[in-house]
């Protein structure tokens, strides 16, 4: 599934209207219809109708067939509602095409028997184009209408609100009557369905203006908007339903859309990942690759252990953990499946820059080098990392403190590598890498990740809720597996182990990063299910749930 910006959406609309010759009003009709269908589905769920109607039709069909009846008629189930008389919806209508969508939806809802009242944010005379046609059609159908600020509007009188105030054409924070209506809708306690995006949301970045609608359901039209997947916007959108309105998905490739929602289909069809992770019947530990991990200090020995164990659980054949000598006594025996490589250490258990020669030697017999979890900082660590960057002939995964080393270095001047580099920063590490604040990182995670990956020629995994994976070629994937319970020390170390393990098994960097993030999130969800309270998840649970 593609993710688009408002500007890309305008081009997709334009292509459909101009190149395919589909009139804009037809797209708006489709939009109104699918919005109405989702509202009917919602009314049906809360009215306790469940699937009764659908099953009822099926049963009737079966009965008729058994009785030998040849002729059957069925109605439009998606726009049929048994308890329509119990519903009264207010349709908040803005001046642009988003308002036009709401007006079209209002007509379809009225047809189901639901009472609707149009609440215009602006005088209806100010609507133009297709929205004006919809205004006139609604008026011709006799739909009651009021104008906010001129007529009395009491949102307490309705059973639900359709927010069709602002869509992808909105600029800046909602003003005047729009702001007042949004605030009133939010405090009404009524269920809110948003047309396309919640009004007040930045459709590209996911920033929420003050005020912004808090929807239960957002009926997103044609293509998923980037802002619906990025927090805080993702929180304001509620359940997002993407519905087709007649704009062909193939147009997205024509206009160069490069961001995808990370689904099993995208992993399989777009990235070529074998989701079944088949292993060959005659495979052996040598078949599945060997990870070399440089991680851990006395103070943070657990980070290395978590990465190493996660790598094993993610399926690679062998893991060698290179660690400071002072750590060895406490680690021996803690994970018998691991191989340990003593690379010496300072008196206090920290890494020595001289360990690089041993690491370079070890890397020759390994398929991947992962550096960083629990590494700490040490003297001449920049030169140490530069030697690994320039001297290893295998994919490199860089996490945690090794990212902070990179952030302090001018690594664009380092020799280019034959094998890929994957960086796995959390927002704080990303802020240091990009030399901006953490708040600036979170403002538009997708654009930032894409820009950084392209500029630095790395695969970037920007972690946090809805992790973004960006490739140097300009593609990006947004992951939605995972769980807030994963906000626990060491969860990122587990991810580093998983991604390294997949690389060792022969996946390319985009596959390993995307599939690794996806599996890590699934394991987090499974771990949350296994605990009575998700707050009880610890990083080791994620490994065991892999
Ligand atoms: N064929 C198509 O294009 C299709 C489009 N579709 C639908 O159209 C939506 C996009 O429609 P759109 O481009 O007309 O913009 P939209 O979001 O309705 O709002 C713009 C209006 O709001 C106003 N306004 C702006 N900012 C404001 C603010 N901060 N505070 C207050 N007012 C503000 C601004 O008025 P102005 O300030 O210029 O007087 C302007 O008139 C899209 O999300 C989807 O729902 C679908 O039907 C599929 C086919
Ligand atoms: N709310 C959340 N939803 C989904 N995943 C989350 C959430 N919070 C954290 N995570 C995931 O947990 C991991 C935390 O990583 P990180 O911050 O590096 O932890 P640590 O440094 O302790 O290992 C990341 O993969 C992140 O995406
Ligand atoms: K809206």
TrEMBL record:
Keywords of the record? ATP-binding, Isomerase, Lyase, Metal-binding, Multifunctional enzyme, NAD, NADP, Nucleotide-binding, Potassium
Cofactor note as given: Binds 1 potassium ion per subunit.
Q: Where is the YjeF N-terminal domain?
A: 9-253
Q: Which InterPro entries match?
A: Carbohydrate_kinase_pred_CS, CARKD, Nnr, Ribokinase-like, YjeF_N_dom, YjeF_N_dom_sf
Give one GO term, molecular function aspect: ADP-dependent NAD(P)H-hydrate dehydratase activity
User: Which positions does UniProt annotate for (6S)-NADPHX binding?
Assistant: 97-101, 167-173, 178, 196, 303, 374, 426, 493
The record's CDD domains line, in alphabetical order, gives: YXKO-related
Pfam families the record matches: Carb_kinase, YjeF_N
Query: Which sites bind AMP?
Result: 463-467, 492
Keyword check for ATP-binding: yes
Annotated residues for binding of K(+): 98, 163, 199
Q: What is its EC number?
A: 4.2.1.136, 5.1.99.6
State the SUPFAM superfamilies in the record: Ribokinase-like, YjeF N-terminal domain-like
Where do the YjeF C-terminal domain residues begin and end? Answer: 268-546
Question: So what does this thing catalyse?
Answer: (6S)-NADHX + ADP = AMP + phosphate + NADH + H(+); (6S)-NADPHX + ADP = AMP + phosphate + NADPH + H(+); (6R)-NADPHX = (6S)-NADPHX; (6R)-NADHX = (6S)-NADHX
Task: Decide whether keyword NADP is in the record.
Answer: yes
Q: Which co-factor is required?
A: K(+); Mg(2+)
* Reported function: Bifunctional enzyme that catalyzes the epimerization of the S- and R-forms of NAD(P)HX and the dehydration of the S-form of NAD(P)HX at the expense of ADP, which is converted to AMP. This allows the repair of both epimers of NAD(P)HX, a damaged form of NAD(P)H that is a result of enzymatic or heat-dependent hydration. Catalyzes the epimerization of the S- and R-forms of NAD(P)HX, a damaged form of NAD(P)H that is a result of enzymatic or heat-dependent hydration. This is a prerequisite for the S-specific NAD(P)H-hydrate dehydratase to allow the repair of both epimers of NAD(P)HX.
Quaternary structure annotation from Swiss-Prot or TrEMBL: Homotetramer.
Q: Hey, which family's this protein in?
A: In the C-terminal section; belongs to the NnrD/CARKD family. Belongs to the NnrD/CARKD family.
Report the protein name in the record. Bifunctional NAD(P)H-hydrate repair enzyme
Gene (name only): CARKD
